[in-house]
Specification:
Belongs to the asp23 family. It comes from Pseudonocardia hydrocarbonoxydans. By secondary structure, this protein is an alpha+beta fold. It is 26% helix and 32% strand. It has two helices and six strands; from the N terminus they run H-E-E-E-E-E-H-E. Strands 1, 4, 5 and 6 form a four-stranded mixed β-sheet that branches. A two-stranded antiparallel ribbon has the order 2-3.
């Protein structure tokens, strides 16, 4: 004889997702939104690679999260439309992957940059 066991939600335990994981989800979603750009990281004036958006995520009391997001956008492009797209994508990804919703999302545009000019770099002559 086999007994069927169905535990109530309270008896199954709970899932905690560390804020670092939530931060990575936010940054990945923001970086994947058209119109956002990676920027050069510099340490003491020396280039040390590329970086994308930067986020700080904190858990709210109701399971929602507060997000402070800093990013670089492509210029010329409509900033408001790009930021709205970032907000939508970040919200969708947090909901889909972590089952979380955003309570507050503050976006800071820390830079506008034109499209990359390729390996030649700015100021290089093409012959």
């Amino acid at each position: 004889m086999t007994a069927s066991v169905t535990a109530s939600v309270e008896e199954r335990g709970r899932l905690d997702i560390h804020p670092t994981v939530l931060r990575k989800i936010v940054e990945h979603a923001a970086d994947g939104t058209p119109g956002t750009l990676r920027h050069e990281r510099r340490l003491a004036g020396v280039g040390v690679g590329q970086a994308g958006s930067s986020a700080k995520v904190s858990d709210g009391p109701d399971g929602a999260v507060d997000v402070a997001l800093e990013l670089t956008l492509q210029y010329p492009a409509p900033v408001r439309r790009t930021v709205d797209a970032v907000r939508d994508r970040v919200g969708e990804e947090l909901s889909r992957i972590a089952g979380r919703r955003i309570r507050n999302l503050a976006v800071t545009v820390s830079g506008l940059r034109g499209p990359d000019t390729g390996a030649a770099g700015p100021g290089a002559r093409v012959q």
